[in-house]
Amino acid sequence: MINDKNLILGAAFGYHWNDLKIFIKSLRKFSNCRVILIFEHKLDKKNLDKFKYYKIEHYIYKKKPLKNVPGLINSKSDVGQRRYEMYEFVLKKIKKKPKKVLLTDTRDVVFQDDLFNNKFQKSINFFLEDEKISNDSRNIRWLKRTVGNIKYNKIKNNKISCSGTTFGNFDQILNYSHLMKKYLFIYPYKRPLRHLIIFKKIEPYDQGIHNYLIYNNYFKNMQLHKNGFSKICTTAYMKKFSFNKKGQLRNKKNKIYSLIHQYDRSFDKNGFPIFNFKKLYA
């Protein structure tokens, strides 16, 4: 029986079963929450059969983006920006509103237990990485080329908040999705001339707007979770990894993370992957 009080919502443009099986198999090992994945095109029978077996709902989003806004063109690289209008659209259409919602990336996410079993004190929750904004060239670029240097300088010494995972109650997540959509239109990405000349595609830059909103107090009753003490882990800047006897990644409280994001970017000194989820969920 699916628990529709809890919802996971994610964009899966360009992905197929092989891209999503670690996400889906690990989730269903621990949770019976409702899941809606958003695609751009109809799915073939193999994908449909797999999603049906694991009780994964899907939605085909066909609304045309506004082509006059940089980064919001119909290409694979624009999903990072467009997903917020998708989230808002789907959430508004849901007949039975969930109490809790996780917005998440999909391909590079794995679950270690049921995130919804954790008690979050605040109504919307954001998850920090182990690095400052000012020490990451991409986050600097995403902010400077959207909100500008002055606004960047005001928040640059804060830790990066990853836009790949956001957790909260229904109303707060709907509001977050709306604000992200709105401010991605207000602050479109300003492409350098050299990129225009060589027709370089715009990479996802939504994390710049995500951090701008968080550190300018657009959200009431929010909590920023430090990576080492959280239930959601973003591994990109992690240098040390601690595992229990079952091989599960633990935080500094010796509690396992419920969700690990960007696990496929973590390697040891010899270049071998830190995590073996590809074998575990083959």
Give a verbal description of the structure.
- The chain has 282 residues and is of the alpha/beta class.
- It has one domain: Spore Coat Polysaccharide Biosynthesis Protein SpsA, Chain A (Alpha-Beta Complex).
- 31% of the residues lie in helices and 22% in strands.
- The protein contains nine helices and twelve strands.
- The protein has a seven-stranded mixed β-sheet. A three-stranded mixed β-sheet has the order 5-12-9.
- A hairpin with a 5-residue loop joins strand 10 and strand 11.
- Helix 3 packs antiparallel against helix 6, helix 4 packs across helix 8 and helix 6 packs across helix 8.
- It is globular and about 50 Å long.
- The relative contact order is 0.16.
- Average pLDDT for all residues: 92
- Give a short account of the largest sheet: 7 strands, mixed
In terms of quaternary structure, the protein is: single chain
The computed structural class is: alpha/beta
Query: Given the C-alpha coordinates, what overall shape results?
Result: globular
Strand order in space, largest sheet: 3-2-1-4-7-6-8
| Rg measurement, Å | 18 Å
If you consult CATH, what is the topology?
Spore Coat Polysaccharide Biosynthesis Protein SpsA, Chain A
The CATH homologous superfamily corresponds to Spore Coat Polysaccharide Biosynthesis Protein SpsA, Chain A
CA(first)-CA(last) distance: 25 Å
Q: Could you say what the CATH architecture is?
A: Alpha-Beta Complex
Order of helices and strands: EHEHEHEEEHHEHHHEEEEEH
**Per DSSP, what share of the residues sits in E-state strands of 2 or more residues?**
15-25%
Helix run count: 9
Annotation, overall tally of beta strands: 12
Number of domains in the coordinates?
Answer: 1
